[in-house]
Amino acid sequence: MKLLTFLYQGSKHTGVIEDGGVAPIVEINARHGTRVPDNLLEIIRTGVAGIVTAGVSTLPLAEVTPRLPYETPPKIWCIGLNYLSHAEDIDAVQPEEPGSFMKPASCMFEPGGNIVLPPKHISDDVDAEGELGVVIGKTCRFVPAEDVRSVIFGYTTTLDLTALDILRKNPRYLTRSKSIDTFFSFGPMIVTADEIADVESLEVITEHNDGICSRDFVRHMRTRPFELVRFHSDHMTLHPGDLFSTGCPKGARIKAGDRVRARIEGVGALSANVT
């Protein structure tokens, strides 16, 4: 199932994408007498079992405005240097364990929106990284490797940005270089885990203006998605809606006027303009 949060005629709703359109949850409930929450984070918490789209009219995708799936993920985990090509690009050494760090929800921007570069005296070297996002679906801790699949709700695309010059000054402390306003987005679509037969076969692509900046397969990650979830669950409780942004093959150096897009076949695409 492919889920979307969107604006339509001034109101925000959640819906299911199919047949080239979106079936709104409010219409699904009206048609089938269900009580599915019209809120994507609540759907992640309660599950999709009650969502039946049969007989529901869809809205054309061209008539809706995609929004962030939800505005405040409980946790946003990002993984640095998970592809060797990214480490080589910024002249860094891959860590033995996941190079994980967290980002605040305050740095998010809407899908299709603007990345606002910081003033040059703050940073003059920013890159944008298209990544695979993993969305947690169950409260869990100490998840055995064989059970990881059962705690994942689905997958999405993310854009993770870095002020590389700030990072070079503070290589052990990523937070400030990663948390500037408009330095993260995800969505607009979340694809439930059952739609992806083999997550390691997915190809993660970062597009920059009219070309491709980088592309690589999930199977080439140093630490792959299931192991990332297992590893982090040993250190803290994971909750529905927690998001893992799993790393980029190589980031695109960006400047005002550029366009960037994260694209993963079968998962979706997430674009932004740079101002």
What does this structure look like?
The protein is of the alpha+beta class and 275 residues long. Helix content is 16%, strand content 35%. Strands 1, 2, 3, 4, 5, 6, 7, 9, 10, 11, 12, 15 and 16 form a 13-stranded mixed sheet that branches. The two termini are 34 Å apart. The relative contact order is 0.21.
The helix content, as a percent range, equals 10-25%
Low-confidence stretches: none
The count of strands amounts to 18
The average pLDDT score comes to: 95
Shape assignment? globular
* Count, helices: 7
**Distance separating the two termini:** 34 Å
Order of helices and strands: EEEHHEEEHEEEHEHHEEEEHEEEE
Radius of gyration, rounded?
A: 18 Å
The major β-sheet equals: 13 strands, mixed
Short description, anyone?
The chain has 275 residues and is an alpha+beta fold. It has helices at residues 25-32, 40-46, 84-89, 148-151, 164-169, 175-178, 225-233; strands at residues 2-8, 11-18, 21-24, 59-60, 65-66, 76-80, 99-102, 114-115, 126-136, 152-163, 184-186, 189-192, 203-208, 211-217, 243-245, 252-254, 259-264, 268-274.
